[in-house]
Predict the 3D structure of the following.
Amino acid sequence: MSAPVAAVAAALVGALCGVHNALPIIRLRVPPFIATLAMFSVARGFAYIYVGGGQVGNLPTEFTRAVGEGPLMPAVAISTVILGHVLLTRTRFGRSVYAIGGNEKAARLSGIDVAKVKFWVYVICGTLAGIAGLLLAGRIGAGDPKSGMTYELNAIAAVVLGGTSLMGGVGTVVGTLLGAIVIGCLEAGLGLMGVQSFVQMAVKGYVILMAVVLDQTKKRR
């Protein structure tokens, strides 16, 4: 298929993964951590099955050049930040997300359709994950199931460092962007210093732990 069709397909697959996350959480009351962890394993397993344990190479040159060398990736990143910020701060949906994160029971009693808001949150996250995978494939020049390993740690670290509370109800997209920049600079600095990747994982783990401890201390105060 052509690159534009493949791009749409990637986003749709991500959206379907979001639906797969949302339904057990909303309908069956499965804890979100368990549901998303299961989806993580299922998606990676199906990816390995689809490519037979290898990778998809020989991607179109125009696609890899546009993603890896052109302005597409920063444009998508900036657009995501702007749209995410507007969605959370200027719309009813965004206010509902904050309300549910702060106190789900109070949000339900105030008339918010909690199930509907949660569903679309997971679909949006899944779609963005599909787009991120597409951009990563264009950057490395292949579709590799092993790419993106430990990226979940980067995601957690970025949002926590950006001021998002793991208890819910507090956080901004701009803060997450700043957290991602900090994590990127930390990785680049450790790499230039010749620090092994395993040590970098340990450092990121401690960064997350310290950020959560600071968040809990702030809440108690």
In short: The CA atoms of residues 101 and 169 lie 4 Å apart. Residues 150-221 form one domain. The chain has a mean pLDDT of 88.
